[in-house]
Design brief:
The complex is a heterodimer of chains A (about 150) and B (about 525).
Chain A: H1 8-21, H2 29-44, H3 47-61, H4 73-81, H5 87-99, H6 104-110
Helix pairs in contact in A: 1-2, 1-4, 2-3, 2-5, 3-5
Chain B: E1 12-15, H1 19-30, E2 35-38, H2 53-60, E3 67-69, H3 73-77, H4 110-114, H5 129-143, H6 158-170, E4 175-176, H7 211-221, E5 225-228, E6 232-238, E7 244-250, E8 256-260, E9 263-266, H8 269-279, E10 304-311, E11 327-328, E12 344-348, H9 353-359, H10 367-374, E13 379-386, E14 395-403, E15 409-414, H11 419-437, E16 443-447, E17 482-484, H12 499-521
Parallel strand pairs in B: 1-2, 1-9, 2-5, 3-15, 9-17
Antiparallel strand pairs in B: 4-11, 6-7, 7-8, 10-13, 10-16, 11-12, 12-13, 14-15
The chains are: A mainly alpha (about 150), B alpha/beta (about 525).
Chain lengths: ~150, ~525
Amino acid sequence: MASSLVSARDRQTLVNVVYAAFPHSTFPRGPYERAADAVIDQAGKDPRFLAQLLQGLTDLDAQREVPFAELDADVAAAVLRGADGTPFLTAVVDSVVVTLYSDPEVWELLGYEGPSYEQGGYVDRGFDDLDWLPDPKIEHDEEMTA
Amino acid sequence: MTRFEYDDSDVVVVVGSGAGGGTVANELCQRGFKTVVLEAGPHLTGEDYHQDEWAAFGQMAWSDPRTTSGSWQVATDFPGLPAWIVKAVGGTTTHWAGACPRFKAHEFAARSTYGDLDGTSLLDWPITLSELEPYYDRAEIKMGVTHRHGRPPLPANNNYKVFANGAEKVGYKYYSTGPYATNAEPYDGRPATVQDGFNFQGDKHGSKWSTLVAELPKAERTGNLDLRPDSHVAQIEHDASGRATGVLYVDRNGTLRRQRAAVVCVAGNSIETPRLLLLSGSAQHPDGLANSSGQVGRNYMRHTTGTVWGQFDKPVRMWRGETMAGVIADESRLDTDRGFVGGYYMETISLGPAFLAKFIAPGRWGTPVTELLDQYRNTAGMWIIGEDMPRADNRVTLSGETVDQHGLPVANVHFDDHENDVAMRRHGQRQGAAVYQAVGARKTIETPPYPSTHNLGTCRMSQRPRDGVVDRYGRAHDVPNLFISDGSVMTTGAAANPTLTIVALATRQAEYIATELNKTLS
C-alpha cells in the first residue's frame, strides 16, 4: 500500500532514480515505473525505509540547480554515484535489482524466454540450436583416474 | 500414509529428507524398519514449483535467519544468507542441478597427499575409495546417472557447445555432458528431460533425481515410512546411559512433540546438523551432544567456487536446457604444481536475468551491470567448483542473540578463505576465461561466490574420536545410536559436487544400521 506521503513528483523522481541506477537505452519507461512503484509499496510497509526514501529523494533534488528529474542522464548518474552506499540508495537498489529483472517485459527486451514448462520445455524449441560452433563430443574417451 | 505412535521406541527417526536423510530412510524402509522422517519444511511437489527465480527462491529456500562472520565475501554480500539450500521435502536435492562426479582416491587421503598445510585441519578419511566404490555404483544406479551403467549421455545444449568447443581449443580432454542425474531417456518410472531449463527452482517434470520423486515415494510404498513435513526438530534427547532416546520437535501447529526412537539419524545439511547437536546440550553433554571432541561445527567447508561468464557476438541462449549438463574434469587432477593443492571442476551454469543481475556484482548498479545484462542473450556461463581447505575456526556456532521463529538460537557461519582457496579460485577464473576467449568471447566477467550450496564437514568422520564427531559409518563417537547422514560427515570436501557421495555414504550407513539393529532387536 503506497503511502500518501509519496507525492506524484516524488514518484517521478524515483522513476528517474531507477533509470539512472539501471540505465538500459532499449527499455521503455513502463518497467522503470513498475520497479519504482514496488519500492514505494515496500516503503509503505516499513516506516524507516519510507522516511529514508522521502529524505533521499529530497536530497537528490538539492544536488544541482534543477530537480533530479530534469537532469541529463550523465549528470543524473554522477549525482546518483554521490549517493552510493547510503541506506536510501542501497535499499532502492536492493529492491529494484529484483523487480526490474523479474519483469516479463524486461525479459522479452533482453531476449530471455522465462517459464518454459507449459510449452514443453526447449527439447523441441531450440535447446541445441546454436549453429556458429561445431557440434562437440559429449562423452570423453576414457575415465580419468587421477 | 503410515503413522507410528509418538511413544513407539522401535522407530528410526531421520531428521531431514534430502540426499542423506531421504536415502537412509528409503534404505531402512526397504529392509523393513519403521522410519519416521521429520522434515522442517513443507511438502512441495512439481506442480507447486515456480519457473521464476525469485518466486522459487521465496518458496523453497531455507530463509529462516542465520548470521555470518569472517572474511569471506559472502558475509559482506549476503550477511543473512550464508547458504542457498532448501527447506522442503526432498531438501536440497530438489534444488541441485545433477552433476555427479565421484571423489578420487587421493581425495580420501587429503592430509597424506597434500601434507601438513599451514592454517588447515586436513585429515585423512577413515575410509578409502575402494570401500565406497560398490556404494557409488549403487548410488549411480539408483539415481540414473548418465554415462554410467548403460545410461546414455545427455545431448549438447547451447551453453555446452560454447563450453566444450572452448575446452577443446585450450587443450582440455575430459569434457562431457555428465555424469548427470537427470534422465536422457525414461528411467525408473520417471520421464526424460524436456530441457526446460529450470533446475535450481525445482524440476516440474520429475526427470531429475531427487529424494522427493525417487527415494521417498519408494519408501512410502513399503508402508514403513511416516513422513512428517513442517516438523522442526528442536532437541535430541538421551538417557543416563548416553543413548539417544528420541527427539523433541515443533509440529505444523507449533506444538512441541516427542518422538521416541531406537536410532536417530541427523541429516539437516552441514549448517543445521551441528546446530541441532549444539542445541541438544545436557548435563552429560555440556558442549552439545556428541561433542566431547569439540569438533561439532568445526572444519566447515563450502567448496572454492566462482563463476565465469563469456559474452559473444552471437546468441547462446544459455537458459535453454539442463543447467549443469557440462563438465570439464581436467583441472580436477592431482597436480600440486599449480600453486595450490586440490583440484577443481568447471561446470556449465545458467542464471536468469533476475539472479544474474543480483549475483554478478552484488550491491553494484549502473552501466557496469546494465551493459552485461544487455548482452544476456549472448552470454555463456560456467561455475568453478574445487576442494577448499578445512580449518578448525571455519565453523558453525550458535548465534549469541538471533533466534528463529521457535525461539531457538540460529546458526552463525564463520568462514575465512585459506590462501589455497584464493589461489585456486584465481586459477579457475583465469582458465575459465581462457576457455571462452578461445571461442571468441568479446568479454569475460568473473562473479564472486554465491551463498553456499555445498555445505560440508561440520561433523567429520575420523578414525580417532578426538579428531572428529563420527566414525567410518557416520555413527557418533560419543552416542552409539546417533548417526549423521549428510555431508557434515565429510572429512575433507574433495573437488566433486557432493550429492552422489552423500547418497553413497547414506546407502552404506543404512546397511550398517540395519545390521546393528537386527542384532539388538533379535
